[in-house]
């Protein structure tokens, strides 16, 4: 039996597997980000702009809400939101729940830019998903949702 250093958590098989999941997630994020940059360039967006616009397609949100939803810093979302507004792709609206925290929503131009991405996005996701069984993709999504819930419950 190996000894564990005092104050150091012992390794577990589940912990080791999760570490590998995290490492693969970093790799996937990098690849998906690279693909997003390629897809967004022809429509005049960046991956970051698409991410922020995507967060408010269904309903306007304050910058802090977008940051929480996307696990980004409020400051980085604020910078991107201000750029989107300056480019005419989004607009700020009054927030009835909070005077100072305005809501962000896409303009018609913002919705149009995101919808122009649809063909490239669907072509990309169809190509990549063709290498993985649909049931496995559904399981992956379920597990990711459970990991997000577990992470959200952590007091970091």
Write a concise keyword list for the protein shown above.
DNA-binding MarR family transcriptional regulator, Arc Repressor Mutant, subunit A, 156 residues, mainly alpha, 6 helices, 64% helix
Structure explained in plain terms:
It is built from 6 helices and 3 strands. It has 156 residues and is mostly helical. The chain has a domain at 46-151: Arc Repressor Mutant, subunit A. The chain has a 3-stranded antiparallel β-sheet with strand order 1-3-2. Helix 2 packs across helix 4. The mean pLDDT is 93.
Query: Structural class of the secondary structure composition?
Result: mainly alpha
What is the approximate shape? globular
Distance between the termini: 31 Å
Specify the biggest β-sheet: 3 strands, antiparallel
CATH architecture of the domain at 46-151: Orthogonal Bundle
Strand arrangement in the largest pleated sheet: 1-3-2
* H/E element order: HHEHHEEHH
Strand fraction band?
Answer: 5-15%
Count of β-strands: 3
CATH topology of the domain at 46-151: Arc Repressor Mutant, subunit A
What multimeric state do the chains show? single chain
- Give the name of the CATH superfamily of the domain at 46-151: Winged helix-like DNA-binding domain superfamily/Winged helix DNA-binding domain
Uncertain stretches of 5 or more adjacent residues: none
Give the proportion of residues in helices. 55-70%
Mean pLDDT across the residues is 93
CATH class division of the domain at 46-151: Mainly Alpha
Radius of gyration: 19 Å
């Amino acid at each position: 039996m190996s000894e564990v250093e005092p104050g150091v958590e012992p390794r577990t098989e589940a912990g080791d597997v999760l570490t590998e999941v995290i490492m693969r997630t970093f790799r996937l994020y990098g690849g998906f980000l690279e693909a997003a940059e390629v897809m967004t360039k022809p429509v005049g967006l960046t991956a970051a702009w698409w991410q922020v616009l995507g967060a408010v397609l269904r309903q306007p949100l304050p910058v802090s809400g977008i940051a929480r939803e996307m696990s980004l810093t409020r400051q980085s979302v604020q910078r991107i939101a201000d750029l989107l507004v300056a480019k005419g792709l989004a607009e700020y609206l009054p927030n009835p729940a909070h005077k100072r925290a305005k809501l962000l929503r896409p303009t018609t131009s913002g919705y149009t830019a995101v919808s122009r991405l649809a063909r490239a996005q669907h072509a990309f996701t169809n190509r990549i998903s063709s290498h993985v069984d649909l049931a496995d993709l559904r399981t992956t999504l379920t597990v990711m949702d459970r990991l997000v819930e577990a992470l959200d419950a952590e007091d970091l």
